[in-house]
Structures are given as C-alpha cells and as structure tokens.
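Lab notebook, bench 4. The sequencing result for the construct came back, and we need a structural model before the next group meeting so we can plan mutations. Quick request posted to the team channel:

Model the 3D structure of this chain.
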Amino acid sequence: MIKSPIKVKLSSTVIVLLKWGVDKLPNSINKPPLKNYDYRVMMVKRSNQIKFFPSAHVFPGGAVDEHDNSKEWEQVIEKPIPSNLSIRISALREIFEETNFFLDKNDKLINNENKLTIEKLQSDLMNKETSKNNNFLLNFIKDSGIKLKLDQLYQWARWVTPILGPKQTHRFDTYFYVIPIYQYPESCKIDGTENVEMDWLSPEEALEEHRIGKISLPPPTWLTFHQLSKCHTIDQVIELAKKRDSLDILYDPIMTKPTIPSNASTNLPQERYQVLSGDYIYEQEKLKQQTSNSAATTTTTTNQNPNPNHKNRIITRSRIGDLNDQFSWIYEYQNTVPGSIDSQYDGSNTILPPKL
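Done. Here's the predicted structure in token form:
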C-alpha cells in the first residue's frame, strides 16, 4: 500500500486475453480475422452515469471490498496461495459481477442447469444492503466444491490515481492483472449498470479506434495497449507479464502542466503531463515533499539530483483544444530514463489523420 495525504483504496482490473480463432464465437461477435495478432482483449464501455471517465472503454474491474479480505477464501483456493489474495479475489468477483464469467473453472461454475442460481447470485451481489453481511460469492464457491486457481493472474502493473484537487476524497491503487483464456466464455455479458457495452479488440484495433475518435481511452489504458502492441502472440504477452510481475511496477503519476516561457506564442497547444518515476519533474516534486514533510512519500526511491534530460511522462492534449472534453484527448508517451522497462515505448503517440 502506498502512503498518501488522502485515503487510498485498493482495486483491481483485469486484461482478459482471448486466443482468437481457436474457438467458435457467437453470432453476436462479428469481427474480421486478425492479421498481426492472435488475441483480442475484453473491453467494456462505462456508463455515462459514472463520474470517473464516463463512457470510456476500460478493462473490467473495481474496488476491493471487505468480503474479499476474508481468510476463508483460502479454503477454496488451490495451494500454494498466491500473493495479494484479496486483490485477486476482487478481480474474480468484479469480472463476474460485470461480465458474468469466472476467471477460472468458468465452464464448471456456470452451466445450463444452474442458470437461475447464477442469476440470483448476481442479484445478491448487486444488492448493497444484503451483501453487507453476506459473502455470497464465497458461499457459492464453497457449495460448488470446486477449488480455484488464481496464480495465472499475472500482475502487469499498479496504477495509482493522481492527486487531482482539494475536493478529491480518495485515490485508487489499482492492480492491473493479465490472464489468458483459450475458450470463449459463452456466459459472458455486461451488467448493464456500470457498463453498457462489451467488445473484444486487439491492441492495434483499440489504438486505431481511439486515434479516429471512435472510443475514449483513459491514459493508463492507452499506455497499456501500447505495451501490449509489441506482443503479437498471447504467449509473448504472458512471457512479458511474468517479467513485469516480478518487478512490481508502480505508476504513481503527478499531474502538472508545462512551464511556458513569458515570450512564448499564445498559440501553444494545451497540454497536461502525468509525470512518472524517473522523470526529473517527478523527482523534483518528491524531493519537495520530503523536504517540507507536507506529504508522505511512496516506496519509490527519490533521486537526489534529478537529471533534466530524464523524462517519463504521458502528455495529454486535446484534438479540439479543450482538455475538459475527455473524448478529445490524445496522448504522447516520453521515456528517456536509462534502464526503464518502458523506454522501448518512448515516442508512442496518437497520430491524428491529416486535415482535409
């Protein structure tokens, strides 16, 4: 858990990779054959009623709740018990709540014979009053007699919500997990409350649909797709995911704006930075925090002499010149930090089509 001047809540999100072309898909999924990848990624479109990134395309997930922390979960998990079990349980629960399938043993836990049981379980989980005092999901797994295997969830990264302003009540420390599946989960469907659409997109397709303005991607999702884009097979993703898992990669961005010289043109584009560990602005800000003791620091080691040539940042711009419109956001990623696992993505950006 990171340290922060405001409350931090644990959460999870899951990058579900489906090996494409190995299984018959339902008629509702009308997708062209893939040329450059052998997998697509599950995406959900958030409701326009959600406060944070309404109508954006994201990986499914949500916050850890008190039931996810129950020690009784160890009774239904195959040994050895994986690390951060409560966060993995939240991933299991949130994916089920939002998309109606289980990350493990789905074909055994959901079938035609228990359709009514599954519908009731979904209803119980969505009922905040009754679910306060009942761990419905744990009881369902116990009654099934099935033990789940969750160590195939590989930690891709952790993203912490930046501090956005004085009215902000909390931040999320979100664990991004990757999991491969090799059979289309026939039971999957969206919940119709938090999310209103589901889609399966390759990295190439997701980045292109964002480029042309068809979908909105939050900055962490956009960068994750650029990271995935270097992996053309599901096996390559898993190989990289295992490496990233061992590094416990943390993105704890600081929001800032570029310094504009007094003699600069007034026509400079609006832009906003999310500076990350290793960026000289990030290191300067952390040094200020340590010096003033005005805020606790994260576990990131702060460089005492930041190099102004070192950049690790996502730059957000607007295709219409209005940063208040998230649907207009386009991005550029810069990383010139020596030894950074993400330096290979330096220069990634949203290349807009030429104006007619």
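The first helix runs from residue 85 to 99.
Will bring this to the meeting.
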